[in-house]
Structure formats: C-alpha cells, structure tokens
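step=encode ok
step=design start
structure_in=
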C-alpha cells in the first residue's frame, strides 16, 4: 500500500513508513481527529492517490533505468558487498566499468606512491602493505561507489532529457552504461608498465628474500 501521509510505498510486512515514520495501523488525533482506524477511509493529510501513484511509478522507472545502466549484476552492486575484481584489477576495473576519471586518478596515485617509495628507499614489505591497503579499500568501496554513481548519472540523464519517454531513456542508459572491454585492454598497458617499473625499482630488495 501507499503511505497515506507522504505517498511512499509501504510493504505488506512493514508497519511504519520508512520515509516519514507514519504508522499505518495507529492514527494520532492530528492525523485522524475522528478516531477512525487507518483503513484508507479518512486522512486529512493524505496526498492525492493519483499523484502518489505517479510518484511511485517515477521511482520504479528510475530504478529500472539504473538497473539497465549497470547491467546483469545490478543486484550484486546494490548489495554493496566486497568486489574481488576491484581488489585484483584496481584501476583497470574502474575503467572497465566506464569510471574513466577515477581509474586514471588511481593509476596516477599508484605511480606517485611507487616513485615516493623509490625516492626514500622504502622497504619492500612496507610498500607491499601500502598497496594491499589500497586494494582492500578499492574492493570494499567499489560496488557502493559505482551504484551511487550510477544513480547520479541516471538522475542527470533524466534531467537533461525530460522530453524523452522511458524507452528512449532506457536505450540511452544502455549505451552510456555497462562495460567497455576495449578501453580495458588499453588500460592493461599502464598496469603492465607499473608492474615492470615495480620489478626494476625493487628487484634488489626482492633478491634479499
């Protein structure tokens, strides 16, 4: 059912609206001065049901567009669990998911960290710990970050294309979302260079082990 106060959807197993805190089974005197039980019979604060339904449809379409943008793994990203792809591939996986600016920024950050480690003659195990911490951070935050970024991009898409219908928006979301295998292959090149420079810079320390 819809919340009689704000129009938010309330599931059958929920008693309180998650948006406004309205209790669907208990009515205050303000909400119902006549003391009538909340069965949708009377509520002076209720929103127009047609407007509430339109708002609900709008929310459902929005999340459907986000699902189209993300692709088959939508539910996985929505849960925000640990991303092993981001952990092992780092910036390459960001670029694979079309987060180009973030992926490039991570590449630059890792280059700078490696250069600093070489400059101060940082011990290999310290440098390795720093890299592992970065990768764990990427794996932990990627899915939630990507999901929120997807919602933001869909919101911008709808705002910039208010004259287009749902099917047109869905087609655009499909084109701008998803993955980019071609750029991923290109992104592997700097990853290989980063690995090679790591081996060259820390080869003497590796031999000590």
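sequence_out=
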């Amino acid at each position: 059912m819809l919340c009689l106060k704000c129009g938010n959807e309330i599931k059958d197993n929920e008693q309180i609206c998650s948006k406004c805190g309205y209790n669907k089974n208990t009515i205050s005197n303000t909400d119902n001065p006549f003391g009538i039980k909340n069965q949708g019979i009377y509520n002076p604060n209720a929103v127009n049901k047609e407007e509430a339904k339109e708002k609900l449809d709008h929310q459902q379409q929005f999340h459907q567009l986000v699902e189209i943008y993300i692709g088959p793994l939508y539910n996985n990203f929505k849960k925000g669990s640990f991303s092993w792809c981001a952990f092992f591939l780092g910036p390459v996986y960001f670029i694979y998911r079309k987060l180009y600016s973030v992926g490039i920024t991570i590449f630059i950050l890792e280059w700078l960290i490696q250069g600093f480690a070489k400059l101060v003659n940082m011990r290999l195990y310290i440098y390795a710990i720093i890299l592992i911490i970065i990768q764990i951070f990427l794996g932990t935050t990627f899915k939630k970050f990507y999901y929120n970024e997807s919602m933001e991009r869909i919101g911008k898409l709808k705002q910039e294309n208010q004259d287009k219908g749902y099917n047109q928006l869905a087609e655009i979301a499909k084109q701008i979302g998803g993955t980019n295998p071609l750029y991923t292959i290109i992104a592997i090149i700097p990853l290989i260079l980063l690995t090679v420079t790591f081996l060259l810079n820390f080869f003497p320390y590796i031999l000590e082990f």
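step=design ok
step=annotate ok -> Residues 124-160 form the longest helix (37 residues).
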